[in-house]
Amino acid sequence: MQPVEVFALWKFGRYDLETLKNLSEAFDSLEEARKAKPFQLERTDFDAVQKFANRQRELAEKVKAKIISFWDEAYPPLLRESSSPPVVLFCLGDEKLLKKECVSIVGTRRMTSYGKKVSHEMAFAAAQAGLVVVSGLAFGIDSCAHGAALEACGKTVAVLGTGVDVPYPSSNRKLYERIVQEGCVVSEFPLETKALKQNFPMRNRIVAGLSRATVVIEAPKDSGALITAGFAADMGRDVFAVPADIDKASSEGCNWLLRMGAIPLTHPSELLEYYGLSGESSQERDEILKLFSNGPLMFDEIVSVLKMDPANVLVKLTEYELAGKLVKLEDGRYHILGR
Question: Are 86 and 173 in contact (CB under 8 A)?
Answer without folding.
Answer: no
